[in-house]
Amino acid sequence: MLAGQRIVLGVTGGIAAYKAVEVCRRLVDAGAHVVPVMTAGAEHFLGRTTLSALASEPVQTSLWDEASPIPHTRLGQSADLIVVAPATARLLAAYAAGLSTDLLTNTLLATRAPVVVCPAMHTEMWEHPAVQANIATLRSRGVHIVEPESGRLAGGDVGAGRLAAPEAIVAAIEAVLATAAIEQGQLAGVHVVVSAGGTREPIDAVRVIANRSSGKQGYAIAAEAAARGAQVTLVSTVELPTPAGVAVRTVETAAQMQAELTQLAPTADVVVMAAAVADFRPVLAAEGKIKKDQGVPQIVLEATPDILAGLGAAKPAGQVLVGFAAETSDLLANATAKLQRKRLDLVVANDVSAPGVGFQHDTNAVTLLRADGTVQVVALTDKRAVAAAVLDTVVEIRAHAARPDHTNDTVNPTS
Ligand code: PMT
Fold first, then answer.
1. Residues 163, 196: one domain?
2. CA 109 – CA 102 distance, rounded (Å)
3. What is the CATH classification number for the domain harbouring 161?
4. pLDDT by residue (tens digit) across 142-177?
5. Which of 84, 329, 358, 387 has the smallest count of CB within 10 Å of its CB?
6. One domain for residues 80 and 39
7. pLDDT above 70 as % of the chain
């Protein structure tokens, strides 16, 4: 996540400024391009030489550098992320008030990149209503706060206000970058596997047990995912026009579909099972064509493997697994049971007995049921719009999973 990212590291004047050196080193080691900016206060605690030596560029401190007449706009516009560690009460106040007092505050005002602020100060200062109000203001504007820890502070005091550990700060930066990429709708670098169409289970050399799935819904999902930049592999039983950027693997039976998906799923970031897999298949398919004069054949059926349940049981960490539920009654109850039994993150429930819904139509109407209980109804619309709604939800699930939970972390002035 950090490789190639341009990160402005702001350092303000607190005793914890020395920890910024470790944050810088970890970011550079992870492949980030780190641009350090120090305030005048920071220079009381940390020499420029140390940070310049470890960062990707020399430290900058001034708005009035003749080599770059508008350094703050250049820094703010080119940053993928700005982190301020440590952030003093003064920095928080200036940033919350929109004051441009130095290079760092100017840069913070001149950016649209995500900003991570890591406060560090004495407990009394941290708990002061003015500081907390500034934190609340910054949070309401989307600034990510890595809260201070409790621990020993400068002067031997103990309490809340110690700067979060460098590894926690770097983890927060990674999570914010991941969330930003996902929230921008970027599926670039994300491998999405989609299944489409109905399986055909042979009775003999010419006859099959099939279903009415046309594959349209699965193809629409594959096309939408590719349009969002994903690497898409479509496992399909039908031959519709291949959407741009989609790799298709053609199969016929449930067993063949299972073999392809079992191979693809372990490395997929998202799996969407839109195919209508036969639930039953003949135990034995006759080699040739069964002749009419042999009498009506007695076809013995067996259950097919539940591919989706297998994928749910073996789901790798971080993968988003989406199933469909094609129902003709008790839509939500049946879909919820499938969501839970197959260990899905999302089930797309369609009442295929309703007009214009499900099999073969160009339209669909679905209810999206998430594992966290969130429910979204998508009224009758074209299948591409349903695909967009499904992928929006997948993006949300991925963003939620990537979101940092640093509410108990801390910061501060010493240590
Ligand atoms: O293809 P279209 O004509 O565009 O129609 C779209 C659709 C109706 C096929 C699609 O919207 C849909 O509902 N797909 C799922 C159909 C289905 O098999 O539903 P189900 O409720 O029987 O199965 C639940 C889930 O388990 C599905 O994700 C299915 O792919 C999966 N499954 C089912 C049986 C099985 N043996 N293995 C599975 O993986």
1. no
2. 11
3. 3.40.50.1950
4. 899 999 999 887 778 888 899 999 999 999 999 998
5. 329
6. yes
7. 94
| Structural domain of 80 | 6-184
* In a shared domain, residues 262 and 276: yes
Q: Domains in the chain: how many in total?
A: 2
Whole-number Å distance between alpha carbons of 276 and 279: 9
Say yes or no: CB of residue 326 within 6 Å of ligand 1: yes
Distance 348 CA to ligand 1 centre (A): 10
Query: What's the gap in Å between 306 CA and the centre of ligand 1?
Result: 11
Q: Which of 142, 168, 184 is the last residue of a domain?
A: 184
**Does 145 share its domain with 291?**
no
> Per-residue pLDDT tens for 278-288?
999 999 999 99
Query: Is 364 a known active-site residue?
Result: no
Residue-wise pLDDT tens digits, 177-186: 887 776 666 6
Candidate from 195, 261, 308 with most ligand 1 atoms within 8 A of CB, to mutate:
308
Structure confidence by residue, pLDDT tens digits, 268-325 = 999 999 999 999 999 999 999 999 998 999 999 999 999 999 999 999 999 999 999 9
Which pLDDT value is given to residue 185? 65
pLDDT for residue 54 is more than 50: yes
User: Is the Cβ atom of 307 under 6 angstroms away from ligand 1?
Assistant: yes
* 338 in the same domain as 219: yes
